[in-house]
Amino acid sequence: MPEVSIVVACYNAQPFVAQAMDSIIHQTFADWELIVVNDGSTDGSGSYLRELAQTDSRIILIEQENQGQQAAANAGIAAASAPLIARMDADDICEPDRLALQVAYLKRHPEVGLVGGQIRRLGERSAGLASNFPLDHDSIVAALRKNHHAICNPTILFRKSLFDSIGGYWKHDIAEDWDMFLRMGEVSRLANLDTILLSYRFHTGSINGRRIVEAQLYNEYAAATSWQRERHETESTFEEFLQSHRCNRWPSSWMFVVDCLSIGQYRKAIAELYGRRKIRGSVRLACALMMSPGRTLRRLGNMAAKKIHRAETPGARSPVPTTPSPVKTFAPAFDHSPSSSIETTADV
């Protein structure tokens, strides 16, 4: 039995999936199995994955009709045989020592049930600054309850027994990671390594404004039910939560939507800037600032703080070269669908 099962949900991830898979195969930690769930891809991802699975017995391919990210992740985790589960997206790139660092950390800290790490933003033509996610349990939970991004789902490694004990991901096909983080934090400690573990790809095709608004709403629902469980109250249904949520009250409803849309503008700005389209990126960033000055300035401040911290830290890992490694290219770009990954806030 392997020590780690890496679970990847894949839907139309060309032209990035080959580079993602390569980064897993070349991990310095070798005791793993890779479970890839092809969630009804139509762009050639399935053909590539079928060929890849024939080259390495550690790679298990599950194929299903398109059911969405949550269903694909659940299918992959259900098939996992290892006690530790690593999540990964089909368009990101792991650092070679990602698994080695995280496995060693969980061995040293048995009280920790889930550990993530920092990310590097990766665009079409350049790589950017590192994230500045909190490191300790209390700070992570406090940030999640404020709807601030505190853990990046593609970086996590967690104990499968604890995941099973909380009932896995919730039934809603959005913000399943946010709810899971909070519930894992109720049965164990959460942590982030202060080390870049993954290059997180920004590209405009993966950003959907309506989906971001929906994700923000479900993030707040996950936070609300977390508080209810702590107070030993009955958990609200999503419909009950909506009845009392601020987005139903004017002018809060207008402000909530504008704030959410600013997240989409910020993410698109980052994608444009890392694609070296500076004018479009600057315009989008200005739009984000006008829509939500506080949130946008906080994101930019976090990025600047991390840059200063890494510059002052002896031996800090340097960013990857600004030009991503060549990969096999296929005609279709990344296609956003119910199965494609969406970080449930944009503070990355």
Describe the protein:
The protein has helices at residues 17-25, 45-53, 69-79, 98-108, 137-145, 160-165, 176-187, 209-230, 238-244, 252-274, 278-291, 293-312; strands at residues 4-10, 32-39, 59-64, 84-89, 93-94, 112-122, 127-130, 157-159, 189-201. It is of the alpha/beta class. The protein folds into 2 domains: 1-91, Spore Coat Polysaccharide Biosynthesis Protein SpsA, Chain A (Alpha-Beta Complex), CATH 3.90.550; 94-157 and 175-319 and 344-348, no CATH class. Keywords: Glycosyltransferase, Transferase.
Indicate the topology.
Layout (H helix, E strand, L loop, with lengths): L3 E7 L6 H9 L6 E8 L5 H9 L5 E6 L4 H11 L4 E6 L3 E2 L3 H11 L3 E11 L4 E4 L6 H9 L11 E3 H6 L10 H12 L1 E13 L7 H22 L7 H7 L7 H23 L3 H14 L1 H20 L36
Parallel strand pairs: 1-2, 1-4, 2-3, 6-9
Antiparallel strand pairs: 4-8, 5-9, 6-7, 6-8
